[in-house]
Amino acid sequence: xxxxxxxxxxxxxxxxxxxxxxxxxxxxxxxxxxxxxxxxxxxxxxxxxxxxxxxxxxxxxxxxxxxxxxxxxxxxxxxxxxxxxxxxxxxxxxxxxxxxxxxxxxxxxxxxxxxxxxxxxxxxxxxxxxxxxxxxxxxxxxxxxxxxxxxxxxxxxxxxxxxxxxxxxxxxxxxxxxxxxxxxxxxxxxxxxxxxxxxxxxxxxxxxxxxxxxxxxxxxxxxxxxxxxxxxxxxxxxxxxxxxxxxxxxxxxxxxxxxxxxxxxxxxxxxxxxxxxxxxxxxxxxxxxxxxxxxxxxxxxxxxxxxxxxxxxxxxxxxxxxxxxxxxxxxxxxxxxxxxxxxxxxxxxxxxxxxxxxxxxxxxxxxxxxxxxxxxxxxxxxxxxxxxxxxxxxxxxxxxxxxxxxxxxxxxxxxxxxxxxxxxxxxxxxxxxxxxxxxxxxxxxxxxxxxxxxxxxxxxxxxxxxxxxxxxxxxxxxxxxxxxxxxxxxxxxxxxxxxxxxxxxxxxxxxxxxxxxxxxxxxxxxxxxxxxxxxxxxxxxxxxxxxxxxxxxxxxx
Length: 557
Description:
It is built from 17 helices and 15 strands. The protein has helices at residues 35-45, 74-82, 114-124, 139-150, 153-200, 206-218, 220-236, 241-252, 262-289, 294-314, 319-385, 431-434, 437-454, 471-484, 497-500, 527-539, 545-556, and strands at residues 2-10, 13-19, 24-29, 62-69, 90-97, 103-107, 110-112, 125-129, 392-403, 406-415, 429-430, 459-463, 490-493, 505-514, 517-524. Strand 14 (505-514) and strand 15 form a beta hairpin. The longest helix has 67 residues, at 319-385.
C-alpha cells in the first residue's frame, strides 16, 4: 500500500506530505484547489512522462516520493530480483525533475529507467482515472476479467508454455518445408556438380603435387644433363675430383708423423673424398630416375587443366577446398533424402503439441464459460445498486484459432435501457460503441469490485470516477468502495458527500495565499472537521443545521 506521498516544487505545491490509511482514503476540495495536481505528481512516480511546465520555481528541482509497503507480493519480489534491486518490505519510489528539465527515477535510491519504474508501480498501484475506462472496451481487458474471476492464472501459464512450444515447432516445420522446396529446386544442379567432382576423383593435395611433378618433367632434360656433367666431373673425367683427392691423400700420408696438424688435415681430406664419392653415387641414382616422358606430361597436363577448371568454377584455389565443396554437396544431397523423414517427424511433434495446447485451451474455455452467468448476474445487480437499474451486461465467448491467451474471443455487450423484466430483448452492442463515460466509470467500478474478490489487486486509486452521479447512486458507489477497502487500500478523489462519508481517512485539499502566490496545501480532517466538510459538499460554503445533521448521519453510518 501507499503509506506516504511527498511532493516538492510541483506546480503550485511548495512542500506537501500526505499519509494514507490502509483502507478507504478520500481526497476532497474545491474545484481548482489542486486535487488533479496531486494526481499528476503521483503519476510521476508511476512512470508517466514528466512535464517541465510543472516546475514553477525553475531554480529548484521537483521531487516526488512515494513510500510503499510491499508486503509479501511475489510479483514484486520477482521484479526486484530480476532487476537486481534490494528486496525490502518498504519501497521508496522517487522521481526528480532537475532545473534543466531532465528527469531521473529511483527505486530505493537506485537509479532506474522509466520502463522499470512503470513495471514496478503497476504491481503496486491500480490508477483508475476518468479516461481509463476506455480499456474496459478492449477485448483483452474483458478476457482478463473473466480469467481473474475463474482463478485460472496457473492454467493460463501452463497453456502459454504449451502454446509457445507448439509455435516454435510449427515454425521449424514450416522452415523445413521451405528448405525442402529449396532443396528440390537445387537438387539437380547439386547432383550435377557433385557427380562432376566425384568423377574427377581428386585426392588430397593432388593438384599441388601434380603441378610440382610437371615442373620437374618439363625440366627433365636440363636436370639430367646437369646431373650427368656433375657425375662426370666427380668420377669419370680425365682427372676426376675423387681421384685427385685420393692422390693428395697418398702424397701427404708419409709425412703425418712430422707435423702435428697434418693428421687432422689428412682426416678431413679423407672425409671429403668419402663425401664426394657418396655424392657421385647419389647424382648417378637421381639421374637414372630423371627421364622426360611426353605421355605422362600430357596426362598430367590434362589432369591439372581439369583441376584448374573446377577451381575457377567454384572460386577456390586448392585441392582441399574442392574436396570440401564435394563433401558439402554430398551432405546436401543426403539432406534431400533425409528431409522428408525430418518433416514427418516434425509434423508429428507439432500435432502432439497442438493437441496438448488445445486440451488446455478447452479447459480454459470451459472455466470461462462457467463464469459468464455468475459474472453477468453480479454485475447487473451492482449496476442496479449504483443507479443504473435498466442497464445490463452480456458476455459473448466465441471460439477462435489458438492464440497466446487461449481459443476464445471474449467481448462484453451492453444495453443501458433493457425493457423491464425482459433481458432477452435488450439491444446489446459492444461496450466501446454504446456506453457513455459515466456509464463506463460505474461499470468499471462494479467489475473491479468483483475482480478484487478473486485477485490480490494493488492499491486502487479512483480519480473522480463518480462524475455524473449523486444521491442514492453515489451512496451505493461509496458502499462498494468501502467493501473494496476491507481487504486493500483504496484512495478516491471525489466530489460526492455520500462517498466522503464512508472514508476511514479524509484528506482535504485547499489553496492559500503565501507571499502573494496561490499555494496548494492539505489537511487530514478530524471527525468534526469531516462533518463540516461533508455538510459544505451538501449545501454550500455556509452549511445549514440540516446539512450538518445530515453530514453527521452520513459519517456515523
